[in-house]
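User: Teach me something about this protein's shape.
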Amino acid sequence: MAEVRRINSFGVRSWLETIAKISREVALEFVECPPPIIDQCNMVRGFLGHGSVVSFYAMMVCEACDEEIDQLFATASCATHGGALPPTPCPRCGRAMEIDDIEEQYLSFLRAGP
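Assistant: First, the predicted structure itself:
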């Protein structure tokens, strides 16, 4: 899903109609979900159907040098860090980066079940 840059209301409606038709016998795993998809996961109940996010991007910023990157995270690595993002060193200065969002809200999709 890495190439998704935005999704509008028509796209969300079409997505929900399509995802609802997929049999529960089919394992759904979503990889490389960009922020617009994570936003929808957090706002729209059932956006993933019975699937789960395996990996996702989060916009990270370095307050020390103003570097910004889209960092890929494995969902499993968040679980091993108590439901939080693992540390991300800045590629420019090496200092710790922070998510450019409210972390608890951005990661709320991790606590929601399918």
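Now, about its shape. The mean pLDDT is 94. DSSP finds five helices and five strands in the chain. If you'd like, I can walk through any region in more detail.
User: That's plenty for now, thanks!
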